[in-house]
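Quick one:
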Amino acid sequence: MILHTIVDPDLIWNKGSVCYERKEITYKGVKLEVIRANESYVVVNRIFSTDLSHYLDPDLQPGSTIKYTLMSQR
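Output:
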């Protein structure tokens, strides 16, 4: 197959890429997609909201860390 593009082939064919476990959580009433950084912190990857004020909150901006622990569900 011939693929004419300016994008790096490693990005297209996923060679050597690391897949991070993404999880959806609700923090401050806003649904977020996060990536686990370690056992007690997650990093915000994406915001699922249509409210523009959520995007201005520094705690919710992509790249910010949130202290997050898993609680057992009963």
